[in-house]
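Following up on my earlier thread - several people asked me to post the actual chain instead of describing it. Fair enough. Here it is, all 80 residues.
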Amino acid sequence: LIDGNSLTYRAFFALPSDMATSSGQVTNAVFGFVSMLTNVLKDQEPDGVLVAFDRPEPRAASSVAAVAKMSSASQPASST
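Reply from S.P.:
Thanks for posting it. Predicted structure:
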């Protein structure tokens, strides 16, 4: 199982940003991602691979955490 967002982020900042197509589209993250994935597959020879990416919209857990944080802030401080 590979965290696609983490690997892409790492590839983007690890390689120079002047890697681009003739139209100017930066390709360093794509090149780095494929390069690192290829190396892992070659070195580890896994039976299978799953690459997961985060969805762009906020997760339900984020809104639940925000509500919990707001409700805990409104609680009176306990005296001990």
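The chain has a mean pLDDT of 85. That should answer part of your original question.
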